[in-house]
Amino acid sequence: MILDKNLSIKKLTILTFIIMYSLFFIMTIINLYSYSRYEFSKNDKLIKNFNTTLSQQLYEKFNNLSEVSKYPLIIPEIDKLHSTLTSDEKYDIADYNYLNYLCEMMLIQSKSINGAFIYNLSGEGVFSSRNTTNSIIKNASSEEWFSNALNDSNSITFLPNMKSEDIFQYTSSNNNSLIGVARQIINLKTQEITGILLLTLPIDELLDILTKDLPYDNQILSLYTPNGDLIISNNYEINFTQYFKDFNFISNSPVIKTITNIDPYVTTSNTIPLTNWILLSAIPNTSVYTINSLYIFSFVTNIVFCSILFLVLYNLFIQRIFNPINYLIDNMDKSNIESNLSSELLYEREDEIGILVKSYNEMKSRIHDLININYKNKIEQKDLELKQLQNQINPHFIYNTLESIHMMAELNDDEETSIMAEYFGSIIRYSMNRKVNTVKLREELNIIDNYIYLQKIRFDQLFIIENLITEDVMECEIIKMIIQPLIENAIYHGLSECSSNGKIIIQGQKVCNQLLLTISDNGIGIDTDTLKDLNDYINDKNNKFKGIALRNINRRLKLNYGEKYGLEIFSVLGKGTSMVLTLPYIVK
């Protein structure tokens, strides 16, 4: 979005507030949505993991029953079992005791089993059971479960919803439902079925597994046959049989589906291996997809707080900023400038607007005085400028004169004078070019080389120059002619009293996005008090010195770059002096 450049600050502030509030509101909504999606996803994983774990527990229970039912089939005297079951005669006491012994051995192997039965093909059986008053079992040949077990293509059949009356002639009044596991007793030599083995499990054993440590309130856990017949549930009031067509039982992995035909429930279903029974978990939507009430409260509180905060800030801006600014603008109206110069704008507060009004009043007063003074000085100033222009020497005259000296020296084979004239001309031309205020450090150093050459001729090898500036800062932009005065100062004030072995070092490096240029000499140095006075002088804090070069350099740096840049001098008496220039690191 491109804003109108002429848009008022008031409208811009209102627009900014609206954008900020909109962004805050959108980000808060997104945050709430992301949090809810995260919580819902976490709940989905928890539900699936719970169903998987519960299915595994049920599978282990049924698998254990399956393993126990194999016991009579793996004993060494298996042939005796087949001959006993296929005998046409009734069981004698030895056969009865033998079959009863096998039943008792199966009971011992699992505490969950409450009854073990062995039947021949005629339906006559022998059994052993726990905690039951029943002692006479039916002939099972007429029972549906018996014929189903005999005709099942699988050797083992899991029988849901069995009753004691399906097995015993007489049952107690508190007869409970049973889970049956029927296994065909097969003669491996002839591949013929010789009998049926039946194990029964109290249905309460499964109910304990289904109701233990439920993670959600009002969670319904049910076990169904593949046809949708309910086997067991912890809540018989709600039956999901009619919705079985909506579920997918192809995979053993949990499948989550929401049922909305009745009160919304999140259902998870998966098939238990071995039995092919269906474990169905149903949880009310309100128990699964809810967001923490503390988070909702925090969300609403943040919205309300930010709304109030924006209103308070806007009102504050109106009262303390916009209204005073409009008052000031009205007074500064162009049509009233001349008539308002002698009047004073009234503002009672001492805040930033008050400072602005005070400065505005002072400015009007000064302008009023300057108008009177300016008119009187205008003619005199023009006369002075005319005389000054007439007295100025044309810079081209200097260049042409130096060029003439250079050519005359060459004609007279005076190479040294020719070079001096050439170098001096380049320095004059460089320094008097008023169109350029900043140059690259490399250009400044080229002129410094010419200047040093001329000084070495004068001082006859009094000093040497060592340039330690690294190549990575050579392209930095600096103010023109700020290094030459420092080298001149080092020669005249630092090394002029030395007889020989003078040395000037020029250093330059980048430090924290700043360019530090250091000009050091090993001259006479400066004592501590004089050094302090000198640093104060170049910062306009005293007038104890006559030279203006160092002060001018410091002023130029601060005017161009800001107060944190400038010149600072360090020195030790008898050891030497270092002058450090701090500039911004600028490369274009």
TrEMBL record:
Gene giving rise to this polypeptide: ypdA
Cross-referenced Gene3D superfamilies: 6.10.340.10, Histidine kinase-like ATPase, C-terminal domain (3.30.565.10), PAS domain (3.30.450.20)
Q: Residue ranges of the HAMP domain?
A: 319-372
Question: What PANTHER family does the entry give?
Answer: SENSOR HISTIDINE KINASE YPDA
Q: Which InterPro entries does the record match to this protein?
A: Bact_2-comp_sensor_kinase (IPR050640), HAMP_dom (IPR003660), HATPase_C_sf (IPR036890), HATPase_dom (IPR003594), Sig_transdc_His_kin_internal (IPR010559)
Protein name per Swiss-Prot or TrEMBL: Multi-sensor signal transduction histidine kinase
Mainly localized where? membrane
Query: What domain of life does the UniProt record list for this protein's source?
Result: Bacteria
- Supply the CDD domains for this chain: HAMP
